[in-house]
Amino acid sequence: MTATPSLVLRGGESVLRFAGGPVTLHRPDKEHHIPLAAISFVHAEGRSVAIVLTASGANEPTIYRVAGVSEAGALAFADAVTAALPEVPAPDGAELVTTSTPGAPGPRRARWKPVAVAVVAVLVALNGPRGEYAVVFWMAAAFAATGVLLVRSAGREAYRQWRLPRHGITVVGEFSHYTNDRKVYRYTDATGAGHTYTATSGPDAIELAYDPRAPERAIRPDTPYGRVMGGLVTLLGCVMAAGSVAAAGALVLAAARG
Questions:
Q1: pLDDT the model gives residue 20
Q2: CB 46 within 8 Å of CB 66
Q3: What angle do CA 194, 197, 201 make, to 5 degrees?
Q4: In whole angstroms, what is the distance from residue 108 CA to residue 230 CA?
Q5: Cα separations (Å) of 42 from 24, 66, 67, 85, 206?
Q6: Average of pLDDT values for 139-157?
Q7: Over the Cα atoms of the chain, what is R_g?
Q8: In what order do the strands lie in the sheet with 48-53?
């Protein structure tokens, strides 16, 4: 028996959630709780998903539509909700939907560690010792290596932060246990398989986005501020690497010319 995944779809300012029970649709001004019995069918098309409610007589059915979501996530969401629909739905789904006003959003997370590392690297670069060509050359090589490492780590993370929330599948990870002072979360992919994700801190439930081709690799989607800072750290790494290589090349030419 496979577990039901906790799916999250984000499109603009709208968020759809499903964890085996009622579907919730969060918008900036309202939050709709849609029981499964109220749903006639769920239709996914490209980066859009529509929840069509049941309707009686000649009444037009109510439709909740969210656009700009992950295409893979939309298909997984539609399949999961469709599989959970009851055999006998309610005659008028709109009567079962409840609407509430959402609370204020929680504090945003900031990515400070990469920024601190980048600032320290810049300070070291500006205040490094001056000496013979060999010393300066190896310093330039060291900073070039640091820049490459920044590009490799921060750049890969920035790419995943951009790609997976848009083209992957977002689920909810539930806190499981601690290991080596880190929190371990468990999440279920669209096929029902379980996976783990570790983090230094976080609440008991966090959102995770994964690639359908590699569901065991997940990220915790960052805030827009965090994504911008990740891009700036990547750019700083590029500048450090390119500048250090250029400086090392200039030193080699200067040494060759005597």
A1: 85
A2: no
A3: 140
A4: 15
A5: 14, 11, 14, 10, 25
A6: 79
A7: 25
A8: 39-45, 48-53, 63-67
What does the pLDDT look like over 46-66, one tens digit per residue?
Answer: 889 999 999 887 778 899 999
Asked if the model's pLDDT at residue 2 lies above 70, the reply is no
| Exposure string for 147-171, b = 16+ CB within 10 A, e = fewer | bbebbebbbebbebbeebbbbbbbb
Mutual angle of helices 113-127 and 133-167, in 10-degree steps: 160
pLDDT tens, 199-208? 988 899 999 9
d(Cα 168, Cα 207) in Å, to the nearest integer? 12
Q: How far apart are CA 161 and CA 185, in angstroms?
A: 19
Q: How many CB atoms lie within 10 A of CB 59?
A: 10
Q: What is the pLDDT of residues 90-122, one digit of tens each?
A: 888 888 999 988 665 555 555 566 656 644 443
**Residue 110 — φ and ψ, nearest 5°?**
-120, 145
DSSP letter at 62? P
Cα(114)–Cα(106) distance, rounded to whole angstroms? 23
Q: Report pLDDT for 33.
A: 94
Q: What is the DSSP letter of 4?
A: P
CB 93, CB 37: distance < 8 Å: yes
